[in-house]
Design goal:
The chain is of the alpha/beta class. It has 3 domains: 198 residues, NAD(P)-binding Rossmann-like Domain (Rossmann fold), CATH 3.40.50.720; 83 residues, N-(1-d-carboxylethyl)-l-norvaline Dehydrogenase, domain 2; 140 residues, Rossmann fold (3-Layer(aba) Sandwich). The chain is 44% helix and 13% strand. It contains 19 helices and 14 strands. The strands form 3 sheets. The protein has a 6-stranded parallel sheet, with helices on both faces. It has a 6-stranded parallel sheet with strand order 11-10-9-12-13-14. Helix 10 runs parallel beside helix 13. The chain is globular. It binds uridine-5'-diphosphate-xylopyranose (UDX). Uridine-5'-diphosphate-xylopyranose (UDX) binds next to helix 10.
Protein backbone atom coordinates (compact mmCIF):
# COMPACT_ATOMS: atom_id res chain seq x y z
CA UNK A 1 0.00 0.00 0.00
CA UNK A 2 1.43 3.33 -0.91
CA UNK A 3 -0.89 6.17 -0.01
CA UNK A 4 0.66 9.59 0.44
CA UNK A 5 2.11 9.74 3.97
CA UNK A 6 -0.36 11.11 6.51
CA UNK A 7 1.67 14.09 7.62
CA UNK A 8 0.74 17.76 7.56
CA UNK A 9 1.20 19.26 4.13
CA UNK A 10 1.52 15.83 2.52
CA UNK A 11 -1.39 16.16 0.12
CA UNK A 12 -1.10 19.24 -2.06
CA UNK A 13 -2.61 18.39 -5.42
CA UNK A 14 -6.24 17.31 -5.50
CA UNK A 15 -8.57 16.61 -8.39
CA UNK A 16 -12.36 16.83 -8.40
CA UNK A 17 -14.23 14.85 -11.08
CA UNK A 18 -17.71 16.11 -11.95
CA UNK A 19 -18.43 19.84 -11.76
CA UNK A 20 -22.10 20.06 -10.78
CA UNK A 21 -23.27 21.83 -7.62
CA UNK A 22 -21.29 19.45 -5.46
CA UNK A 23 -18.01 19.22 -7.39
CA UNK A 24 -17.70 22.89 -8.28
CA UNK A 25 -18.21 24.06 -4.70
CA UNK A 26 -15.86 21.39 -3.37
CA UNK A 27 -13.14 22.26 -5.89
CA UNK A 28 -13.40 26.01 -5.27
CA UNK A 29 -13.38 25.52 -1.50
CA UNK A 30 -10.33 23.21 -1.63
CA UNK A 31 -8.46 25.85 -3.67
CA UNK A 32 -9.53 28.52 -1.18
CA UNK A 33 -8.06 26.49 1.69
CA UNK A 34 -4.70 26.32 -0.10
CA UNK A 35 -4.68 23.11 -2.15
CA UNK A 36 -3.80 23.00 -5.84
CA UNK A 37 -6.97 21.76 -7.48
CA UNK A 38 -7.81 20.46 -10.94
CA UNK A 39 -11.53 20.15 -11.67
CA UNK A 40 -12.59 17.79 -14.43
CA UNK A 41 -15.77 17.39 -16.44
CA UNK A 42 -16.54 15.58 -19.68
CA UNK A 43 -18.63 18.58 -20.87
CA UNK A 44 -16.26 20.98 -22.72
CA UNK A 45 -18.75 23.89 -22.56
CA UNK A 46 -18.92 23.56 -18.79
CA UNK A 47 -15.14 23.38 -18.44
CA UNK A 48 -14.78 26.41 -20.69
CA UNK A 49 -17.29 28.43 -18.65
CA UNK A 50 -15.75 27.47 -15.32
CA UNK A 51 -12.24 28.29 -16.62
CA UNK A 52 -13.51 31.78 -17.45
CA UNK A 53 -15.03 32.17 -13.97
CA UNK A 54 -18.59 31.77 -15.22
CA UNK A 55 -20.92 29.45 -13.31
CA UNK A 56 -23.12 27.21 -15.49
CA UNK A 57 -25.76 27.23 -12.71
CA UNK A 58 -26.99 29.54 -9.95
CA UNK A 59 -25.49 29.19 -6.49
CA UNK A 60 -25.20 32.20 -4.17
CA UNK A 61 -21.62 33.02 -3.12
CA UNK A 62 -19.96 30.50 -5.42
CA UNK A 63 -18.86 32.73 -8.29
CA UNK A 64 -16.54 34.90 -6.14
CA UNK A 65 -15.00 31.74 -4.68
CA UNK A 66 -14.50 30.29 -8.16
CA UNK A 67 -12.93 33.50 -9.44
CA UNK A 68 -10.65 33.82 -6.44
CA UNK A 69 -9.43 30.24 -7.02
CA UNK A 70 -8.76 30.90 -10.71
CA UNK A 71 -6.96 34.17 -9.91
CA UNK A 72 -4.75 32.53 -7.29
CA UNK A 73 -3.63 29.98 -9.89
CA UNK A 74 -4.60 27.16 -7.51
CA UNK A 75 -7.76 26.19 -9.42
CA UNK A 76 -8.08 25.07 -13.00
CA UNK A 77 -10.33 22.82 -15.08
CA UNK A 78 -9.87 20.19 -17.75
CA UNK A 79 -11.74 17.59 -19.79
CA UNK A 80 -8.77 15.21 -19.73
CA UNK A 81 -8.63 12.11 -17.52
CA UNK A 82 -4.93 11.79 -18.35
CA UNK A 83 -4.26 15.24 -16.89
CA UNK A 84 -6.26 14.33 -13.80
CA UNK A 85 -4.34 11.09 -13.24
CA UNK A 86 -1.01 12.88 -13.70
CA UNK A 87 -1.97 15.84 -11.50
CA UNK A 88 -3.24 14.46 -8.21
CA UNK A 89 -2.62 11.96 -5.42
CA UNK A 90 -6.13 12.45 -4.16
CA UNK A 91 -9.17 12.32 -6.43
CA UNK A 92 -12.72 13.26 -5.38
CA UNK A 93 -15.53 11.75 -7.47
CA UNK A 94 -18.55 14.08 -7.55
CA UNK A 95 -20.47 12.88 -10.62
CA UNK A 96 -24.27 12.67 -10.69
CA UNK A 97 -26.24 9.57 -9.74
CA UNK A 98 -29.78 10.43 -10.90
CA UNK A 99 -32.84 8.20 -10.79
CA UNK A 100 -33.14 5.80 -13.74
CA UNK A 101 -35.79 6.64 -16.31
CA UNK A 102 -38.19 3.75 -15.77
CA UNK A 103 -37.19 2.57 -12.33
CA UNK A 104 -36.66 3.69 -8.72
CA UNK A 105 -33.02 2.63 -8.88
CA UNK A 106 -30.07 5.01 -9.15
CA UNK A 107 -28.35 5.36 -12.51
CA UNK A 108 -24.67 4.75 -11.77
CA UNK A 109 -23.47 4.96 -15.37
CA UNK A 110 -21.60 8.26 -14.89
CA UNK A 111 -19.90 6.88 -11.81
CA UNK A 112 -18.84 3.65 -13.51
CA UNK A 113 -17.52 5.36 -16.63
CA UNK A 114 -15.62 7.91 -14.53
CA UNK A 115 -14.01 5.22 -12.36
CA UNK A 116 -13.17 3.14 -15.43
CA UNK A 117 -11.57 6.02 -17.32
CA UNK A 118 -9.63 7.29 -14.31
CA UNK A 119 -8.73 3.92 -12.82
CA UNK A 120 -6.94 2.61 -15.89
CA UNK A 121 -4.64 5.68 -15.79
CA UNK A 122 -3.68 5.57 -12.10
CA UNK A 123 -0.10 4.35 -12.17
CA UNK A 124 1.04 5.53 -8.75
CA UNK A 125 -0.36 5.19 -5.23
CA UNK A 126 -3.33 7.45 -4.57
CA UNK A 127 -6.60 7.81 -2.74
CA UNK A 128 -9.87 7.96 -4.70
CA UNK A 129 -12.73 9.39 -2.63
CA UNK A 130 -16.35 9.05 -3.70
CA UNK A 131 -18.70 11.86 -2.69
CA UNK A 132 -21.64 11.00 -4.95
CA UNK A 133 -24.75 9.51 -3.34
CA UNK A 134 -24.80 5.77 -4.07
CA UNK A 135 -26.73 2.63 -3.11
CA UNK A 136 -25.14 0.92 -0.12
CA UNK A 137 -22.59 -1.66 -1.27
CA UNK A 138 -21.41 0.34 -4.28
CA UNK A 139 -18.15 1.52 -2.71
CA UNK A 140 -16.92 -1.94 -1.73
CA UNK A 141 -17.53 -3.19 -5.26
CA UNK A 142 -15.81 -0.14 -6.77
CA UNK A 143 -12.81 -0.52 -4.45
CA UNK A 144 -12.25 -4.05 -5.66
CA UNK A 145 -12.69 -3.03 -9.28
CA UNK A 146 -10.27 -0.12 -8.90
CA UNK A 147 -7.52 -2.34 -7.53
CA UNK A 148 -7.97 -4.64 -10.54
CA UNK A 149 -8.05 -2.05 -13.33
CA UNK A 150 -5.46 0.46 -12.10
CA UNK A 151 -1.79 -0.08 -12.99
CA UNK A 152 -0.95 0.84 -9.37
CA UNK A 153 -3.15 -2.06 -8.19
CA UNK A 154 -3.66 -2.15 -4.43
CA UNK A 155 -1.80 1.16 -4.21
CA UNK A 156 -5.05 2.81 -5.33
CA UNK A 157 -7.33 2.95 -2.34
CA UNK A 158 -10.98 3.96 -2.27
CA UNK A 159 -12.83 5.87 0.45
CA UNK A 160 -16.38 7.23 0.66
CA UNK A 161 -17.05 10.71 1.98
CA UNK A 162 -20.72 11.67 1.51
CA UNK A 163 -21.72 15.27 1.06
CA UNK A 164 -24.65 16.90 2.84
CA UNK A 165 -24.73 20.32 1.23
CA UNK A 166 -28.02 22.04 0.48
CA UNK A 167 -28.41 23.89 -2.80
CA UNK A 168 -28.66 27.61 -2.21
CA UNK A 169 -26.44 27.22 0.87
CA UNK A 170 -23.78 25.06 -0.72
CA UNK A 171 -20.82 27.35 -0.02
CA UNK A 172 -21.66 27.74 3.67
CA UNK A 173 -22.42 24.02 4.06
CA UNK A 174 -19.08 23.14 2.45
CA UNK A 175 -17.09 25.53 4.61
CA UNK A 176 -18.88 24.70 7.83
CA UNK A 177 -20.42 21.23 7.48
CA UNK A 178 -22.43 19.77 10.40
CA UNK A 179 -20.29 16.66 10.26
CA UNK A 180 -17.69 14.99 8.09
CA UNK A 181 -18.26 11.29 7.48
CA UNK A 182 -15.33 9.29 6.14
CA UNK A 183 -15.86 5.69 5.07
CA UNK A 184 -12.35 4.27 5.01
CA UNK A 185 -10.56 0.94 4.94
CA UNK A 186 -7.24 2.12 6.41
CA UNK A 187 -5.95 4.57 9.00
CA UNK A 188 -3.86 6.16 6.28
CA UNK A 189 -6.94 7.04 4.24
CA UNK A 190 -8.51 8.50 7.38
CA UNK A 191 -5.39 10.57 8.01
CA UNK A 192 -5.44 11.96 4.46
CA UNK A 193 -9.09 13.01 4.83
CA UNK A 194 -8.40 14.54 8.23
CA UNK A 195 -5.69 16.59 6.57
CA UNK A 196 -8.01 17.75 3.77
CA UNK A 197 -10.67 18.78 6.28
CA UNK A 198 -8.24 20.21 8.85
CA UNK A 199 -9.89 23.62 8.73
CA UNK A 200 -13.51 22.65 9.54
CA UNK A 201 -12.27 20.06 12.02
CA UNK A 202 -10.29 22.79 13.83
CA UNK A 203 -13.44 24.94 13.78
CA UNK A 204 -15.31 22.19 15.64
CA UNK A 205 -16.92 20.05 12.92
CA UNK A 206 -17.16 16.44 14.17
CA UNK A 207 -15.25 13.90 12.03
CA UNK A 208 -16.66 10.37 12.00
CA UNK A 209 -14.61 7.54 10.52
CA UNK A 210 -16.73 4.54 9.49
CA UNK A 211 -16.59 1.53 7.19
CA UNK A 212 -17.62 2.01 3.56
CA UNK A 213 -21.25 0.80 3.73
CA UNK A 214 -22.01 2.85 6.84
CA UNK A 215 -20.72 6.02 5.16
CA UNK A 216 -22.91 5.36 2.11
CA UNK A 217 -25.91 4.71 4.35
CA UNK A 218 -25.47 7.89 6.42
CA UNK A 219 -26.25 9.95 3.35
CA UNK A 220 -29.38 8.18 2.19
CA UNK A 221 -30.63 7.68 5.75
CA UNK A 222 -30.24 11.42 6.43
CA UNK A 223 -32.20 12.30 3.30
CA UNK A 224 -34.85 9.69 4.11
CA UNK A 225 -35.25 11.21 7.57
CA UNK A 226 -35.55 14.76 6.20
CA UNK A 227 -38.10 13.63 3.61
CA UNK A 228 -40.06 11.82 6.33
CA UNK A 229 -40.12 14.92 8.52
CA UNK A 230 -41.38 17.08 5.65
CA UNK A 231 -44.05 14.54 4.73
CA UNK A 232 -45.02 14.15 8.37
CA UNK A 233 -45.89 17.82 8.69
CA UNK A 234 -47.62 17.73 5.31
CA UNK A 235 -49.71 14.77 6.48
CA UNK A 236 -50.63 16.90 9.49
CA UNK A 237 -51.61 19.63 7.02
CA UNK A 238 -54.12 17.24 5.48
CA UNK A 239 -55.58 16.56 8.93
CA UNK A 240 -55.58 20.29 9.75
CA UNK A 241 -57.58 21.07 6.63
CA UNK A 242 -60.18 18.46 7.59
CA UNK A 243 -60.29 19.69 11.20
CA UNK A 244 -60.15 23.42 10.41
CA UNK A 245 -56.85 23.72 12.33
CA UNK A 246 -53.70 25.66 11.42
CA UNK A 247 -50.68 23.55 10.43
CA UNK A 248 -48.26 26.50 10.68
CA UNK A 249 -49.04 26.92 14.39
CA UNK A 250 -48.92 23.16 14.85
CA UNK A 251 -45.49 23.06 13.20
CA UNK A 252 -44.24 25.91 15.37
CA UNK A 253 -45.40 24.17 18.53
CA UNK A 254 -43.92 20.81 17.50
CA UNK A 255 -40.62 22.39 16.50
CA UNK A 256 -40.13 23.90 19.93
CA UNK A 257 -39.76 20.40 21.36
CA UNK A 258 -35.97 19.89 21.18
CA UNK A 259 -36.54 16.18 20.52
CA UNK A 260 -38.42 17.12 17.35
CA UNK A 261 -36.77 20.38 16.22
CA UNK A 262 -38.08 22.96 13.77
CA UNK A 263 -35.87 22.12 10.77
CA UNK A 264 -37.50 20.39 7.78
CA UNK A 265 -40.91 20.93 9.39
CA UNK A 266 -42.21 23.67 7.08
CA UNK A 267 -45.55 22.57 5.64
CA UNK A 268 -46.40 23.31 2.04
CA UNK A 269 -46.00 21.98 -1.45
CA UNK A 270 -43.44 19.41 -0.33
CA UNK A 271 -39.99 18.37 -1.39
CA UNK A 272 -38.41 18.16 -4.81
CA UNK A 273 -34.97 18.66 -6.27
CA UNK A 274 -32.17 16.41 -7.39
CA UNK A 275 -31.75 14.63 -4.05
CA UNK A 276 -34.64 13.85 -1.68
CA UNK A 277 -37.11 12.32 -4.19
CA UNK A 278 -34.60 10.16 -6.02
CA UNK A 279 -32.71 9.23 -2.87
CA UNK A 280 -35.75 7.85 -1.05
CA UNK A 281 -36.74 5.91 -4.17
CA UNK A 282 -33.22 4.58 -4.69
CA UNK A 283 -33.07 3.63 -1.02
CA UNK A 284 -36.31 1.64 -1.29
CA UNK A 285 -35.03 -0.12 -4.41
CA UNK A 286 -31.76 -1.04 -2.69
CA UNK A 287 -33.57 -2.28 0.42
CA UNK A 288 -35.58 -4.55 -1.85
CA UNK A 289 -32.38 -5.97 -3.36
CA UNK A 290 -31.05 -6.57 0.14
CA UNK A 291 -34.26 -8.39 1.14
CA UNK A 292 -35.32 -5.76 3.69
CA UNK A 293 -37.91 -3.87 1.67
CA UNK A 294 -40.35 -3.96 4.61
CA UNK A 295 -37.93 -1.86 6.66
CA UNK A 296 -38.42 1.02 4.24
CA UNK A 297 -41.99 0.50 3.10
CA UNK A 298 -42.95 3.65 5.06
CA UNK A 299 -40.96 5.66 2.50
CA UNK A 300 -43.59 4.74 -0.09
CA UNK A 301 -46.09 6.63 2.04
CA UNK A 302 -43.63 9.52 2.50
CA UNK A 303 -43.39 9.76 -1.28
CA UNK A 304 -47.17 9.47 -1.72
CA UNK A 305 -47.93 12.21 0.84
CA UNK A 306 -45.42 14.42 -0.94
CA UNK A 307 -47.00 13.89 -4.35
CA UNK A 308 -50.52 14.46 -2.94
CA UNK A 309 -49.49 18.01 -1.98
CA UNK A 310 -49.14 18.86 -5.64
CA UNK A 311 -52.60 17.52 -6.43
CA UNK A 312 -54.07 19.41 -3.47
CA UNK A 313 -52.49 22.63 -4.72
CA UNK A 314 -54.18 22.18 -8.10
CA UNK A 315 -57.49 21.44 -6.32
CA UNK A 316 -57.27 24.63 -4.22
CA UNK A 317 -56.52 26.71 -7.31
CA UNK A 318 -59.44 25.09 -9.13
CA UNK A 319 -61.77 25.90 -6.21
CA UNK A 320 -60.68 29.54 -6.29
CA UNK A 321 -61.15 29.59 -10.06
CA UNK A 322 -64.77 28.60 -9.56
CA UNK A 323 -64.59 24.88 -10.27
CA UNK A 324 -62.65 24.64 -13.53
CA UNK A 325 -59.28 25.80 -14.78
CA UNK A 326 -60.32 25.85 -18.41
CA UNK A 327 -59.81 29.33 -19.83
CA UNK A 328 -58.56 30.71 -16.51
CA UNK A 329 -55.49 32.94 -16.31
CA UNK A 330 -53.05 31.75 -13.67
CA UNK A 331 -50.04 33.73 -12.42
CA UNK A 332 -47.30 31.55 -10.92
CA UNK A 333 -44.63 32.90 -8.59
CA UNK A 334 -41.68 30.50 -8.49
CA UNK A 335 -40.74 27.36 -10.39
CA UNK A 336 -37.39 26.41 -8.82
CA UNK A 337 -37.65 23.43 -6.44
CA UNK A 338 -36.66 25.79 -3.63
CA UNK A 339 -35.58 29.42 -3.24
CA UNK A 340 -32.02 30.58 -3.99
CA UNK A 341 -31.66 27.93 -6.67
CA UNK A 342 -32.22 27.65 -10.42
CA UNK A 343 -32.72 23.91 -10.12
CA UNK A 344 -35.99 22.59 -11.54
CA UNK A 345 -35.27 18.87 -11.15
CA UNK A 346 -38.46 17.27 -9.80
CA UNK A 347 -39.70 20.73 -8.88
CA UNK A 348 -43.13 20.60 -7.23
CA UNK A 349 -43.75 24.16 -8.44
CA UNK A 350 -43.05 23.43 -12.09
CA UNK A 351 -45.06 20.22 -11.88
CA UNK A 352 -48.09 22.15 -10.60
CA UNK A 353 -47.70 24.86 -13.25
CA UNK A 354 -47.48 22.28 -16.06
CA UNK A 355 -50.45 20.30 -14.69
CA UNK A 356 -52.60 23.43 -14.63
CA UNK A 357 -51.65 24.24 -18.19
CA UNK A 358 -52.65 20.68 -19.09
CA UNK A 359 -56.05 21.32 -17.47
CA UNK A 360 -56.72 24.23 -19.82
CA UNK A 361 -55.41 27.24 -17.88
CA UNK A 362 -53.23 29.98 -19.40
CA UNK A 363 -50.25 29.82 -17.05
CA UNK A 364 -47.66 32.61 -16.80
CA UNK A 365 -44.63 31.99 -14.67
CA UNK A 366 -41.95 34.12 -13.05
CA UNK A 367 -38.89 32.95 -11.09
CA UNK A 368 -35.83 35.05 -10.16
CA UNK A 369 -33.34 32.37 -11.29
CA UNK A 370 -34.97 29.32 -12.86
CA UNK A 371 -36.74 30.81 -15.89
CA UNK A 372 -34.20 29.64 -18.49
CA UNK A 373 -34.22 26.08 -17.17
CA UNK A 374 -38.02 26.04 -16.91
CA UNK A 375 -38.46 27.40 -20.42
CA UNK A 376 -36.27 24.63 -21.80
CA UNK A 377 -38.25 21.94 -20.01
CA UNK A 378 -41.75 23.41 -20.50
CA UNK A 379 -41.95 25.55 -23.61
CA UNK A 380 -45.76 25.39 -23.44
CA UNK A 381 -45.90 27.74 -20.41
CA UNK A 382 -45.68 31.54 -20.73
CA UNK A 383 -42.81 33.30 -19.03
CA UNK A 384 -42.72 36.78 -17.51
CA UNK A 385 -39.84 39.09 -16.60
CA UNK A 386 -41.17 40.02 -13.16
CA UNK A 387 -43.63 38.93 -10.48
CA UNK A 388 -45.92 41.81 -11.38
CA UNK A 389 -45.94 40.85 -15.05
CA UNK A 390 -46.64 37.19 -14.21
CA UNK A 391 -49.78 38.00 -12.23
CA UNK A 392 -51.11 40.71 -14.52
CA UNK A 393 -54.76 39.84 -15.34
CA UNK A 394 -54.54 36.63 -13.29
CA UNK A 395 -57.74 35.06 -12.04
CA UNK A 396 -55.71 33.10 -9.51
CA UNK A 397 -52.18 33.78 -8.24
CA UNK A 398 -50.06 30.92 -6.92
CA UNK A 399 -46.98 31.24 -4.72
CA UNK A 400 -45.09 27.99 -5.38
CA UNK A 401 -41.46 28.69 -4.42
CA UNK A 402 -40.75 30.77 -1.32
CA UNK A 403 -38.21 33.23 -2.70
CA UNK A 404 -37.80 36.13 -0.27
CA UNK A 405 -38.97 38.51 -3.00
CA UNK A 406 -42.36 36.74 -3.06
CA UNK A 407 -42.61 36.49 0.73
CA UNK A 408 -42.16 40.30 0.82
CA UNK A 409 -44.67 40.96 -1.98
CA UNK A 410 -47.09 43.83 -1.38
CA UNK A 411 -50.72 42.62 -1.59
CA UNK A 412 -51.85 46.09 -2.72
CA UNK A 413 -49.29 46.30 -5.53
CA UNK A 414 -50.09 42.82 -6.85
CA UNK A 415 -53.79 43.47 -6.26
CA UNK A 416 -53.57 46.43 -8.59
CA UNK A 417 -52.73 44.31 -11.63
CA UNK A 418 -54.57 41.00 -11.15
CA UNK A 419 -58.03 40.35 -12.58
CA UNK A 420 -59.22 38.77 -9.33
CA UNK A 421 -57.65 38.90 -5.87
CA UNK A 422 -57.33 35.13 -5.38
CA UNK A 423 -54.12 33.66 -4.02
CA UNK A 424 -53.01 30.17 -3.00
CA UNK A 425 -49.90 30.24 -0.83
CA UNK A 426 -48.20 26.94 -1.58
CA UNK A 427 -45.40 27.49 0.90
CA UNK A 428 -47.24 29.04 3.86
CA UNK A 429 -44.92 31.97 3.35
CA UNK A 430 -47.36 34.90 3.50
CA UNK A 431 -49.22 36.58 6.33
CA UNK A 432 -52.86 35.62 5.65
CA UNK A 433 -54.28 38.60 7.57
CA UNK A 434 -52.51 41.26 5.54
CA UNK A 435 -53.60 39.62 2.27
CA UNK A 436 -57.20 39.22 3.45
CA UNK A 437 -57.21 42.80 4.73
CA UNK A 438 -56.20 43.89 1.22
CA UNK A 439 -59.27 42.13 -0.17
CA UNK A 440 -57.67 38.90 -1.31
CA UNK A 441 -59.23 35.48 -0.98
CA UNK A 442 -56.30 33.70 0.62
CA UNK A 443 -55.96 29.91 0.71
CA UNK A 444 -53.05 27.77 1.84
CA UNK A 445 -52.26 24.12 2.37
CA UNK A 446 -53.26 23.06 5.89
CA UNK A 447 -54.84 26.29 7.11
CA UNK A 448 -58.38 27.31 8.02
CA UNK A 449 -60.28 29.76 5.85
C1 LIG B 1 -31.11 18.02 0.49
C2 LIG B 1 -30.51 17.81 1.88
O1 LIG B 1 -30.98 18.83 2.76
C3 LIG B 1 -29.00 17.83 1.81
O2 LIG B 1 -28.44 17.57 3.09
C4 LIG B 1 -28.55 16.78 0.82
O3 LIG B 1 -27.16 16.81 0.69
C5 LIG B 1 -29.20 17.00 -0.53
O4 LIG B 1 -30.62 17.04 -0.40
P1 LIG B 1 -31.52 20.14 -1.06
O5 LIG B 1 -32.14 19.18 -2.05
O6 LIG B 1 -30.59 21.18 -1.56
O7 LIG B 1 -30.74 19.31 0.06
O8 LIG B 1 -32.72 20.92 -0.36
P2 LIG B 1 -33.45 21.03 1.06
O9 LIG B 1 -33.16 22.39 1.59
O10 LIG B 1 -33.24 19.89 1.95
O11 LIG B 1 -34.97 21.05 0.54
C6 LIG B 1 -35.48 19.94 -0.20
C7 LIG B 1 -36.91 20.20 -0.61
O12 LIG B 1 -37.77 20.13 0.53
C8 LIG B 1 -37.19 21.55 -1.26
O13 LIG B 1 -38.10 21.34 -2.31
C9 LIG B 1 -37.82 22.37 -0.14
O14 LIG B 1 -38.67 23.37 -0.63
C10 LIG B 1 -38.58 21.28 0.63
N1 LIG B 1 -38.74 21.57 2.07
C11 LIG B 1 -37.66 21.70 2.88
C12 LIG B 1 -40.03 21.65 2.61
O15 LIG B 1 -41.03 21.51 1.90
N2 LIG B 1 -40.16 21.87 3.95
C13 LIG B 1 -39.10 22.01 4.79
O16 LIG B 1 -39.30 22.22 5.99
C14 LIG B 1 -37.80 21.92 4.23
Amino acid sequence: MGLPPPVAGAVRRITVLGTGYLGTVHAAWLAETGFDVLGMDTDPARVDALSRGVLPFYEPGLEPLLRSGLKSGRLSFTTSYAEVAAFGDLHFICVGTPQRAASYRADLSQLHSCLRALGTLLDRPCLVVGKSTVPVGTAEALAERLSVISPAGLGCELAWNPEFLREGRAVYDTMRPDRIVAGVTSSRAEAVLRQVYAEPIAAGTPFLATDLPTAELVKVAANAFLATKISFINAMAEVCEAANADVTKLSEALGLDPRIGAAALRPGLGFGGGCLPKDIRGFMARAGELGVDQALSFLREVDAINMRRRARMVDLATELAGGSLRGQTIGVLGVAFKPDSDDIRDSPALDVAATMHGLGAAVTVYDPAALANARQAHAELSYAGSALEAVTNADVTLLLTDWQEFCDADPEELGGVVAKRNIVDGRNALDPDSWRDAGWTYRALGRPY
